[in-house]
Amino acid sequence: MVESELNRMCINPMQDKVNNVRGVAAEAKEEFDAAKEQVGSKALIKLRGELLRLYGDQQKLASEAQSDSERQMTGGLLTDLESISRQAHEAVGFTYTPLEQLAALQ
After folding, report:
1. pLDDT digits (tens, 9 = 90+) for 39-95
2. How far apart are CA 19 and CA 97, in angstroms?
3. Of residues 74, 80, 79, 32, the one with CA closest to residue 57
4. How far apart are CA 101 and CA 82, in angstroms?
5. d(Cα 59, Cα 44) in Å, to the nearest integer?
6. I need a surface site. Which of 57, 76, 79, 80 has the fewest CB within 10 A?
7. In this structure, are residues 52 and 106 in contact, taking their beta carbons and an 8 Å threshold?
8. Is 95 left (phi over 0), alpha (psi -120 to 50) or beta?
């Protein structure tokens, strides 16, 4: 089991990093979904902060990408983060703004 985990991490470390960020984003979305009925826009603010942090992680991974497949992985991650953000904004009736623009406002 340890050997298989080490092989997976060594063979494709970028995939592991992308999956970790994607997992944190999924958890944040689940928390948002659970809280949006009670606190509405406050849940979006919390999710947006987490997505902006993850966007920074994604940008760092994208800058470290060394192959087309790694660039494709990080691009797919950005697509997933934007999708979560869009869905959350729509759920509370807010206008969607891309993460890149939100990050520039920080």
Report:
1. 878 999 999 999 999 999 999 999 998 888 889 999 999 999 999 999 999 999 999
2. 24
3. 74
4. 11
5. 22
6. 79
7. yes
8. beta
pTM of the model: 0.86
DSSP state of 104: H
Decide if pLDDT at 8 tops 60. Answer: no
9 CB contacts (<8 Å, ≥6 apart)?
16
- CA distance linking residue 13 with residue 62, whole number of Å: 13
Rounded CA separation 52/99 (Å): 6
Owner of token pair 């999710």 = 47
First-to-last C-alpha distance (Å) of the chain: 43
Amino acid at 52: L
Which of 85, 43, 77 is CA-nearest to residue 57? 77
Nearest Cα to Cα of residue 100 among 67, 54, 64, 33? 54
Q: What is the CA radius of gyration of the chain?
A: 15
